[in-house]
Design brief:
Radius of gyration: 38 Å
Strand order of the largest sheet: 1-2-3-5-4
CATH architecture of one domain: Beta Barrel
Number of strands: 5
CATH superfamily of one domain: Nucleic acid-binding proteins
Largest sheet: 5 strands, mixed, barrel
CATH class of one domain: Mainly Beta
Structural class: alpha+beta
Distance between the termini: 110 Å
Number of helices: 1
Order of helices and strands: HEEEEE
Helix content: 10-25%
Length: 122
């Protein structure tokens, strides 16, 4: 019987401590957690690349004619900086993005034909 009374007293003490601990308020003011708001990144611009023959070139634009599946189309690109060493009639590769319904050339480079070297086997 003594053991039963001691066991009940022990559980009453534990539950009272637990109830007071959960009920008690802290004297220190609560700190507000700053949520880190990450600004969404702007959508990545898609870079497209084409190759063709230069029909017309100036400091602000280049006009390239290309053939796709038998159809010939002419594309006009805006240049932010003038391109050197490229003339009308050169075969070029143009990397561009589309912005505000304009095709803006990022990079214009001349296409060099690769030479095929045949090895003579002895």
């Amino acid at each position: 019987m003594k053991h039963l009374i001691m066991l009940v007293a022990f559980f009453v003490f534990i539950f009272n401590v637990w109830a007071f601990a959960a009920d008690g308020t802290s004297a220190a003011p609560a700190k507000a957690e700053h949520s880190k708001v990450v600004a969404p990144k702007p959508p990545k611009e898609t870079r497209v690349s084409i190759s063709g023959v230069v029909k017309e070139i100036s400091d602000t634009m280049v006009m390239v004619e290309r053939t796709v599946k038998g159809n010939t189309e002419t594309m006009q690109f805006v240049l932010y900086k003038p391109v050197e060493q490229i003339n009308a009639g050169d075969k070029v590769r143009v990397s561009y993005i589309k912005k505000d319904d304009k095709l803006i050339a990022i990079r214009v480079s001349r296409v060099v034909a690769k030479k095929i070297i045949k090895k003579v086997s002895p």
